[in-house]
Amino acid sequence: MASAEASSNLSKKVQVQRYKPVDYLKENYLNVQKGLWSWLTTLDHKRIGILYLISLTVAFLIGGVMALGIRMELWTPAQTFIEADTYNQLFTLHGSIMIFLFLVPSVPAVLGNFILPIQLGAKDVAFPRLNLMSWYLYMAGAAISIYSILAGGIDTGWTFYTPYSSSTGGAVTAMTFGVFIIGFSSILTGVNFITTIHKMRAPGLSWDKLPLFCWGLYATSIIQILATPVLAITILLVGMERILGIGIFDPALGGDPILYQHFFWFYSHPAVYIMIVPGFGIVSEIISTFSRKTIFGYWAIALSSLAIAFIGFLVWGHHMFVSGQASLASMVFSFLTFLVGIPTGIKMFNWLSTMYKGSIKLDTPLLYILGFFFLFTVGGLTGIALATIAIDVHLHDTYYVVAHFHFVMVGGMVMAFMGGLHYWWPKMFGVMYNQKLAKLACFLIFVGFNVTFLPQFVMGSQGMPRRYFNYIDQFQSFHQISTVGSFILGIGFILAIGYFIHSIYYGKKTVANPWGSRATEWQIPSPAPPHNFDYTPVMIHGPYDYHKPMADFQLGLVQSGNGHDAEHSGEIDKKVEADN
């Protein structure tokens, strides 16, 4: 009956009562089933999110150790402790692991899997088995990638540019096949999220009440579904060229290497937004919660996510200003790249406006977001410089590009991810981490990151090429400062992983809603129940309506004998639109 009304977009009045959550739930999704097998075969979106969290943390640590190895090698202008070929393999694997195994899947796979269905008031995602299959595909792709490291490594750079990648030795074919498999994981996650958002929203949760984190995941899922197949086909063609000798990208075989660059960047630039747009959603959630204010410009933030997703498909050519493409094409791509700054600027303006005159509480999640503001702004502004053709020609393939990329990806996406992890950790595990250590780790990460990458802007503008094993003496001091910063950064991340693990075993049990948020995920016990809700939640307000009483956010359809206290019952004097 409910679905029939939903499809006709009718409104109705429903009987609701308050379901006030208990603070700590003894029987929860973590312990309702025991044993390794129960985890490996779970269909619970929350457990799958935890599986992703463990997997991605391992990938992040491997990629991080490789980054430290790169920085140590660059301590001196000549060889420091590894061979040049080993160095080439290190930066290639660092880039490939960080991008394909950590940055692209991190927010959707971990936080999206865990939080999205709860924010929608659903018991799970639309296709739980497909969700588990996505994780297994990710693990299969990761295993193949590790095999490629052991089977000779790769030295092509994470972009796999042809004709070098189609003719060099090593395990390029295995690595690209691993990326191909991981791509399917990304596509299936996108399909699952879009279907879940369209079909499984709770009564009353209309599009204008949808949490902005869900909007971010929605825009991301569109990019995943439309762009990822292009990458899959491209690297499949690279594999065919290597194995069968078919001339597609290699000029010696009659192919065109520029065609590869078009295919690759058609995916890889939108992929930047796969990484960063869900991070924008996290920022919106945290800003509103820790400012105790209704989000400023809800629709502007929501639609700007879709605008970024759309424009992101039109700017791939700005990676190819020096490839020999037509001057007119470069001018068009340059102009379109400037346009990306508009929806991004809209978000920044609205976030800062939300904080204005808010009751700001400087807890750890918000500290990460404040760090995000500074770092992502630097990344964005330096991106405008690179979108300017004349400047880009000078800075192309220098450390300036390396610094810009890391400011956007680590300064933007990773800071948002860390903020989200600290924000939702009490809901995931029912415990609170050490706040003092968390703030110290945030400080170390912020300082370490800037010490690492700010000198690289200077080096790049002075002509230091990226990926070089040797360099001239004048850049040594910059490289050494950068190396010191990378170790400060590494200590910050190790500290964070340490107190997170410590909190699981020895952390203080938390309450259901430690941040006082109005969002739906905080209106259920901590850790989350096995099926999220023992009732059907009803939304009568948006998740950022802090001027409304908390009781209004804990409503569900009236049902007797369910074991909850009916502290607030009766027919509400509002229409609850069942338009989902």
Automatic annotation (TrEMBL):
Keywords: Cell membrane, Copper, Electron transport, Heme, Iron, Membrane, Metal-binding, Oxidoreductase, Respiratory chain, Translocase, Transmembrane, Transmembrane helix, Transport. Residues 561-580 are annotated as: Disordered. GO terms for biological process: electron transport coupled proton transport; oxidative phosphorylation; respiratory electron transport chain. One of its GO terms (molecular function) is cytochrome-c oxidase activity. Residues 564-580 have a biased composition (Basic and acidic residues). Its EC number is 7.1.1.9. The chain crosses the membrane at residues 50-70, 90-115, 135-154, 174-194, 215-238, 258-283, 295-316, 328-346, 366-391, 403-425, 437-458, 478-501. It is a multi-pass membrane protein. Gene3D superfamilies: Cytochrome c oxidase-like, subunit I domain. GO terms for cellular component: plasma membrane. It catalyses: 4 Fe(II)-[cytochrome c] + O2 + 8 H(+)(in) = 4 Fe(III)-[cytochrome c] + 2 H2O + 4 H(+)(out). It is found in: Cell membrane; Membrane. Residues 31-540 form the Cytochrome oxidase subunit I profile domain. Belongs to the heme-copper respiratory oxidase family. This is Cytochrome c oxidase subunit 1. It comes from Halalkalibaculum roseum.
